[in-house]
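To: structure desk
From: M.T.
Subject: fold request, one chain
Message: Could you run this one when you get a chance? Sequence is below, nothing fancy, just the single chain.
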Amino acid sequence: MSEKKLTVQEFANHFGLVNLSGDKEALKREILEVSVNRPGLELAGFFEYPRFKRLIFLGNHELAFIALLEEERAKKAFDFLLSDECPGLVICQGHECPTLLLEMAKERNFPLFLTNKQTNTFNMETVIYLQDALAPHKSIHASLVDIYSTGVLILGASGIGKSEVTLELIKKGHHLVTDDRVDVSFVRGKLYGEAPELLQGMMEVRGIGIIDVTKMFGINALVKKMEISYAIELVEFNPEQPIDRLGDTTHFFEIHGHKIPLLKIPVNAGRKMSEIIEVAVTNLKLKSDGINSTHDFELRLNELLNRKREQE
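Reply: Done. Structure tokens follow.
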């Protein structure tokens, strides 16, 4: 598991910020925290709890307060805020940057930006963006398919036929997210999967080679990113191993400390795996909605047995 790296240059490019200060080297500073600092207390001279690693936003209130500060107090506050650990500072709502702040930022080669966005709106957009960009992620060997608007991981040992089953599902009208390798991130309590940049829209099919899914099946056959709801593991059929014929055994697949329902399906010659997976996903969705066919069958069986006892 690892964390993604995000430079202040990438952040500025994403939001279209205007650069006021900071050269290419300065813009390589990394953003390490999701939260944003609106430094009211620091501007007032309270320096006991520094939040150096956060982006700084200055909006109407902060800039109005700065305008009232004497130069020495403002200089002391700016000297504290423009630290080497801070990734950058953004002036919001199109305000003109205070002259002293701009001079000190340029002197220190500190990343300073301007945006026309409303401060509160920009704050919320930034937090959401950083939650995605800085989310812990892990790469796993699997395929991810959008089946009935549900993200389904297809797991299994190498050579068991994950790509072939994935291809069958695409031909049936479902959508590919990624084949063979899934980058999984954990964002706001949910798992999301996407393809590594090199593999986007590509599949490797044994005996054929690399195919471009979008060119072969159309752009609508591909989904860039998907929440992962279920996992299906393809396993070799072994007649000597007991099979859960009722499906009342619960398995889970865990990643980033988060568990999703896992269903193990034996692979055997003659089984139409794509259709079995469609049925499996439908059944998992029904269980999520509180409809359990196994439970209903057991109730029906118990009722039948009770009636027989009463008749004896």
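Reply (cont.): The mean pLDDT is 88. Let me know if you need anything else for the meeting.
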